[in-house]
């Protein structure tokens, strides 16, 4: 576990030094919100659970949990997911 922490710190400094996007180097999600009506998520690893009130999406070492009402996955590709509806809460769960 400590070795993972050292690797993450190195990757973070590497990204800073070479001015690279951290989401790519660190393999973390990039999330863009349009108010509370739309969420765009890049760097995901697939949908775990989906209904109109909860969407769980797998990310590197965890998941993103979106809670709301009338949630719809409008787009889903290998790189990006777009969710619309009334977004109330966004949580991260890391393993």
Can you describe this structure?
The chain has 95 residues and is of the alpha+beta class. It has one domain (28-94): Immunoglobulin-like (Sandwich). The chain has two helices and six strands. It has a six-stranded antiparallel sheet, with no helix packed on it. The chain starts with a helix and ends with a strand. The relative contact order is 0.17. It comes from Selenihalanaerobacter shriftii. This is Sporulation protein YqfC. Pfam families: YabP. InterPro entries: Spore_YabP/YqfC, Spore_YqfC, YabP_sf.
Task: Please describe the biggest sheet, giving its number of strands, its sense, and whether it closes into a barrel.
Answer: 6 strands, antiparallel
- Overall geometric form: elongated
The level of helicity is 10-25%
On the 0-100 scale, what is the average pLDDT? 90
InterPro entries: Spore_YabP/YqfC, Spore_YqfC, YabP_sf
Pfam family, one: YabP
Protein name: Sporulation protein YqfC
Key features of this structure:
6-stranded antiparallel sheet, 95 residues, alpha+beta, Immunoglobulin-like, elongated
SSE blueprint:
Layout: H1 2-17, H2 22-25, E1 30-34, E2 38-42, E3 47-50, E4 54-59, E5 62-76, E6 80-94
Antiparallel strand pairs: 1-2, 2-6, 3-4, 4-5, 5-6
Pfam family, one: YabP
InterPro entries: Spore_YabP/YqfC, Spore_YqfC, YabP_sf
Protein name: Sporulation protein YqfC
Short description:
InterPro entries: Spore_YabP/YqfC (IPR022476), Spore_YqfC (IPR022477), YabP_sf (IPR038705). With 95 residues, this protein is an alpha+beta fold.
